[in-house]
Amino acid sequence: MIIPEEFLQSEVREGYYIPAKMKRCWASILEVLNEISIICNRHHLKWWMDWGTMLGVVRHGGFIPWDDDVDISMLREDYEAFLGYAKEELPAGYKIANVYNDSDFRDSLTRLVSSGVVKFTEDFLNKNHGMPYVIGVDIMVIDYVPREEEKCRELCELIEKLHYVAGSIEPERIYKEVPFFHKDIAELEGRLHRSFSRTKPLSQQLAITEQELMGGVKEEDAEYATMMGAYATRPDFRTVFPKQYYQEFIMLPFEFIEIPTPLHYDEMLRKVFGNYMTPFRAGGTHDYPMYTQQEEIVMKEVGNIAWPLYQYQKEIQKDSKEESR
Questions:
Q1: 3-class DSSP state for residue 72?
Q2: CB neighbour class for 25 (10 Å; exposed up to 12, middle 13-18, buried from 19)
Q3: CA–CA separation, 210 vs 228, rounded Å?
Q4: Taking residues 276-301, what's their average pLDDT?
Q5: Residue 278: helix, strand or coil by DSSP?
Q6: 3-12, 107-116, 167-176, 279-288 — which is least confidently predicted?
Q7: Are 44 and 37 a contacting pair, CB within 8 Å?
Q8: DSSP-assigned letter for residue 239
Q9: By the 8 A CB rule, do 214 and 162 touch?
Q10: Is the confidence at residue 316, as pLDDT, over 70?
Q11: Amino acid 282: pLDDT
């Protein structure tokens, strides 16, 4: 991907100052997004911008000025196909984090990052526009909601139970180490007609089973689709749409590229955000910037980092002076 040089410069958008450091973060995110797009295009997989990123596409033609991440979504079939291809086709160093390959992971999504650790090698900094941090894209998965009310209720109850127990057990614990949950495990095994391994991490097995259940509803048995993990565990979750909303897309500008966006974006954004064309700056679900904790750790080690960090530090100081004006 070729990032225009002017994109990396600090600027003011809608009265909000965006330092060059954040623009470089955005550029690094776009590099990850480009790799996802390459794989999806190669294998004819559908993906689209979602949540606040979809809002950024429609309202700002790019990133929301005070945002620092990207969320995309895929239907389960494409999501699982992508994960299979990504293992072989992503550039060296890229990391995939989800419940399948990380016993600590509990979210019903995949986090794809260009590196699993902070890196200050010259090649890495050049590739990621001076950003040494772990930065990437969250890939959400959309599943079908059972048409029959009773089946939907039973599915949601099971997902909620699995989610609760998996989240309550420490990642590496095996069956004999969690006697408090033996009754819950026995109940789940009975309802699912399956047995969990007594010698492998239990919470990861439960989390994977949760994913299998969420992806088990066929398209022909549903009228609606959603993020089933949130739908089953959050009473206030409203993001449930007709399944055709996830089948029709148009290309819209996002910064200096074009990306797929649901054709019915207006209905979707209104349901989630209300009067979405009126900006409202609210807090997010993580530190802003997203790399705050990583940066704090790195700055304590400044004396041990070689030349590339010195160059990066000069940019930080320049941005700080601009922001204080």
A1: strand
A2: buried
A3: 10
A4: 70
A5: coil
A6: 279-288
A7: no
A8: -
A9: no
A10: no
A11: 59
CB 239 within 8 A of CB 227: yes
Look at the block and give the residue holding tokens 């309202």: 59
Is there a contact between 118 and 135 (Cβ–Cβ < 8 Å)?
A: no
- Residue partners of 166: CB distance under 8 A and separation at least 6: 106, 203, 204, 206, 207, 210
Identify the pLDDT of residue 324. Answer: 43
Residue 77 DSSP SS3: helix
Q: Which amino acid is at 4?
A: P
Q: Which residues contact 308 (CB under 8 A, 6 or more apart)?
A: 120, 121, 122, 125, 132
Taking a C-beta distance cutoff of 8 angstroms, is the pair 115, 82 a contact?
no
Centre a 10 Å sphere on the Cβ of residue 112 and count the other Cβ atoms it contains. Answer: 23
E strand segments, 27-157 = 48-49, 71-75, 95-97, 109-113, 136-146
Mean pLDDT, the chain, whole residue set: 89
CA distance 173 to 204: 10
What are the structure tokens assigned to 160, written together?
């909620």
State how far the alpha carbon of 27 is from the alpha carbons of 5, 56, 89, 116, 293, in Å. 10, 15, 21, 18, 20
Q: Which residues of 213-234 are buried (b: 16+ CB within 10 A; e: fewer)?
A: bbbebeeeebebbbbbbebbbe
Backbone angles phi, psi at 319, to 5 degrees: -60, -40
Say which residue the tokens 């309802």 belong to: 191
Amino acid at 161: K
Q: What pTM value is reported for the model?
A: 0.88
Q: What is the 3-state secondary structure (H, E, C) of 160-194?
A: HHHHHHHHHCCCCCCHHHCHHHHHHHHHHHHHHCC
Cα 285 from Cα 308, distance rounded (Å): 31
